[in-house]
Design goal:
There is one protein chain. The protein is globular and about 50 Å long. It has a ten-stranded mixed β-sheet. By secondary structure, the protein is an alpha/beta fold. Helix content is 29%, strand content 14%.
Length: 348
């Protein structure tokens, strides 16, 4: 059982509203309308203070769409003023000069723009014109001298667009491109498309293209693991950026727009709620000896499937808890591990 204060919070993904200008077919949170009773400005500033007191170093603000919330800049500035590196993740549609100027003024760490394929595929998932709006947002942020990255959420359809999208992004002033797997949760779990794809193909794409661009190219924590390319897959050029296991409740957490706390905001299921910030402080939730037990009490004998007995089990810890849960129904066994597929001369 964890001792109080043993775990150190380093990063947080904070959903400040569920309101969104889209209702994407692959949205894991089914965003669109704001939740009833979302945290108000005063409560958000209190959350900001509590994150600072716990030593959180980095916060990613998400929605919904961040810019749908009128006080987004107040929240972001509160975090930045406390020395917390703050990234804003957006679909780009509502990002204009006013928003860019505010981001530049407050000194946000970066802005990440979501692009999910070529124009045809991206607009199909979101709405017509959304692809061009995302590219326009990237150009505007670059004009303001704001570091900008791109996040692409992959499934069985848009994974085929990687080469074309690479060619487009090479012409843009971005510092990173992250590829992540689409978990079949929320709208993405409704069977609109097949969320499965071959992790090996994406790993091969990253390995082949990582030196062909001016930006860092890598995969998120839900793609891998421990293939021979592992050290060069996560946006790092040293060859030593190895996946160290799921950080939910270990060094990271998620907060939703009504104050629910989870180990990771991608664990989008009520069963993973550890508490609510209107009922207990963040420190009380984080330091609760019984909190985040699925990760804090992990041992290798909990591993299942191809992960059981794997030589990297103690380090990898079975991969991404969220992807495992939604794609395979099991926290401790990766249904798509690239190493597993190699060992069995096959793939998902």
């Amino acid at each position: 059982m964890a001792e109080t204060g043993y775990y150190r919070l380093r990063q947080c993904v904070w959903e400040i509203t569920l309101a969104c200008c889209f209702s994407c077919s692959h949205c894991g949170s089914r965003a669109g309308k704001a939740r009833e009773g979302e945290l108000d400005t005063k409560e958000c500033l209190e959350v900001s203070e509590q994150l600072s007191e716990l030593g959180c170093r980095r916060v990613s603000l998400i929605g919904g769409e961040v810019f749908m919330r009128p006080d987004w800049a107040v929240i972001a500035e509160s975090l930045i003023s406390k020395g917390i590196s703050t990234c804003i993740i957006t679909n780009g549609l509502l990002l204009g000069e006013e928003q860019a100027a505010a981001i530049k003024r407050m000194g946000a760490e970066s802005v990440a723009v979501s692009i999910d394929g070529n124009r045809e595929v991206h607009d199909l998932y979101r709405q017509k014109g959304s692809f061009d709006a995302a590219l326009k947002a990237i150009d505007l942020l670059s004009e303001f001298g704001i570091p900008v990255s791109v996040i692409t959420t992959l499934n069985g359809t848009n994974v085929k667009c990687l080469e074309e999208l690479f060619g487009i992004l090479k012409t843009k002033d971005i510092f990173a491109w992250q590829l992540q797997a689409c978990s079949p949760m929320g709208n993405a779990g409704e069977g609109v498309f097949d969320s499965r794809f071959d992790f090996r193909s994406v790993i091969g794409f990253v390995y082949e293209h990582r030196w062909k661009c001016a930006f860092a190219l890598g995969v998120a924590d839900n793609i891998g693991y421990y293939t021979e390319e592992e050290g060069l897959l996560r946006g790092n050029v040293t060859g030593k950026s190895y996946y160290g296991g799921c950080s939910a409740g270990i060094s990271g957490l998620g907060i939703d727009s009504v104050g629910n706390v989870r180990g990771c905001e991608a664990l989008y299921d009520d069963s993973f709620i550890e508490g609510n910030l209107r009922e207990r402080s963040l420190a009380e939730i984080w330091n609760d000896p019984g909190a985040f037990s699925y990760n804090r009490n992990f041992s290798t004998d909990m591993l299942t499937g191809g992960c059981r007995g794997c030589e990297y089990g103690e380090r990898c810890r079975g991969g991404c808890r969220s992807y495992n849960y939604f794609a395979g129904g099991d926290l401790y066994g990766s249904p798509s591990c690239a190493r597993f597929s190699i060992d069995r001369q096959g793939c998902l």
